[in-house]
Amino acid sequence: MIRENAIATPGVGIQLEQVSIRYGNRVALFDVDLNVPRGGITALIGPSGCGKTSLLTSVNRLTDLIPGCVVGGDILISGETICDRSIDLIGLRRRVGMIFQKPNPFPLSIRKNIDLPLREHGIRSREERATILESVLKDTGLYDEVKDRLDAPALALSGGQQQRLCIARALALRPEVLLMDEPCSALDPLSAGVVEDLVATLRGQYTVVIVTHNLAQARRIADEVALFWVPNGSGRLIEWGPTEALFNSPRHPLTAAYIRGHRG
Q1: How far apart are CA 226 and CA 137, in angstroms?
Q2: Measured between alpha carbons, how far is 44 from 215 in angstroms, rounded to an integer?
Q3: What is the pLDDT of residue 261?
Q4: Could you tell me the CA-to-CA distances from 184 to 37, 155, 194 in Å, in that order?
Q5: Cα dihedral 126, 128, 134, 139 sign
Q6: Alpha helices in the chain (DSSP H)
Q7: Is 180 helix (H, G, I), strand (E, B) or coil?
Q8: Secondary structure class of 164 (helix, strand, coil)
Q9: What is the CATH number assigned to the segment(s) 2-101+176-259?
């Protein structure tokens, strides 16, 4: 594993220490050490099956829901371990939002997609919920598009609008971290571009980790990039560092081959 010189981003948002993930007898990810800069956008790249999504879901403990999945090592967010079995998982998932590959709005109105999680997390004031609703819809560029039909079904929105609504729903809980698993891959190119531009605006406000197979996208929006591979059947972190350094001067031959399209 090769570490490039760190970028000048103060603080560490997520710290992974010797993280390994196993499903039964199969090791999906082995011995990962990685510091994710606070407030930056970090892209995880690499071929399918190298453990990127497994790593992503371990950061908010969704791996707990998978029978036979065991996570070893330690994961810290803002210096606090999340691996203790006594941790408040509801509180953790409020701090760590998750956006999936396929948009998954609730089969409710646009308004209730934001209102429901706010009420579930204890925000009783209707006025406060309305203020947050308007704020996050504006932050995601949706407000002007849906302000006159907030009580219409969310599932009637286009795919790109649904994905932005899911991002708005996550932002409504004011997370520290936003995890994104290929958030543009199920969208048409125009909608994908809108979501990509939105992700770029989150820089400095949230610690964002995004899994993507789109190398051009990683280069456009990420501050740091981490390449994973599958040597000997288990995913490993091969190289990570500032985006331009990794793309222009890769130090590991696998990185060079992958970004030039010779492997992957």
Answers
A1: 31
A2: 10
A3: 84
A4: 23, 17, 9
A5: negative
A6: 52-58, 89-95, 110-120, 126-139, 143-146, 159-172, 189-201, 215-221, 243-248, 253-259
A7: strand
A8: helix
A9: 3.40.50.300
Strands 207-211 and 224-229: unpaired
Q: Are 97 and 170 in contact (CB under 8 A)?
A: yes
Q: Which residue has the tokens 């993507």?
A: 212
Q: How confident is the model at residue 1 (pLDDT cuts 50, 70, 90)?
A: low
Those residues whose C-beta lies under 8 Å from the C-beta of residue 248, and which sit 6 or more positions away, are none
Q: Where are the domains of the chain?
A: 2-101+176-259
7 against 55, higher pLDDT: 55
**Cα(174)–Cα(168) distance, rounded to whole angstroms?**
10
| CB 194 within 8 Å of CB 206 | no
What's the CA gap between 38 and 47, in Å, rounded?
26
Which residue shows structure tokens 């992700």? 199
Closest CA to 99 of 227, 211, 213: 211
Coil, strand or helix: which one is 44?
strand
Place of tokens 């501050």: 223
- How would you label 218-238 residue by residue, b for 16+ Cβ within 10 Å and e otherwise? bbebbbbbbbbbbeeebbbbb
- For residue range 37-50, what is the model confidence (pLDDT) as tens digits? 999 999 999 999 99
pLDDT band for position 263 (cuts 50, 70, 90): low
Structure tokens at 57: 């879901």
Q: In this predicted structure, what is the pLDDT of residue 264?
A: 59
Q: How many CB atoms lie within 10 A of CB 176?
A: 17
Residue 221 predicted with pLDDT over 80: yes
